[in-house]
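Reading a protein record of the kind used here takes only a little practice. To see the layout at work, look at the sequence and tokens printed below.
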Amino acid sequence: MYCKNRHRLFCIIFICLSTVFSVECLQAQETQTDEAFSSAQWQAKALDCERRIYQGLPLVDEALLLMEKAECYLHLQAPEMAARSLDRIALYALNDSLRTEIFALRALCEKAVLPQIEATDSQNSKNP
């Protein structure tokens, strides 16, 4: 009698653990899928912004699109590309508040790039 109960208990524990691990695996797959989908969305949005820039828009609208494109690149963790997009903005045609937003976004790009540069410099100093 005692042996049968141990066997049942073992089966119940095994089933519970299998269920928990399968749920965790499914959640991990969903997270990876969501990240890939999000990445594809940001890339598509950046491409759409670039396409609309070449439609001959006024400089203010072009600046807004370039800022939007830079934000897409920041979401994609590509601050160098974001900085390049911001460098294309003609600041002379913009008002002060928009310039301030551009400078703030540019600072975010530089803040994201700086740790990468420091890591590269420290690796280069270790390997003469």
Notes: The radius of gyration is 25 Å.
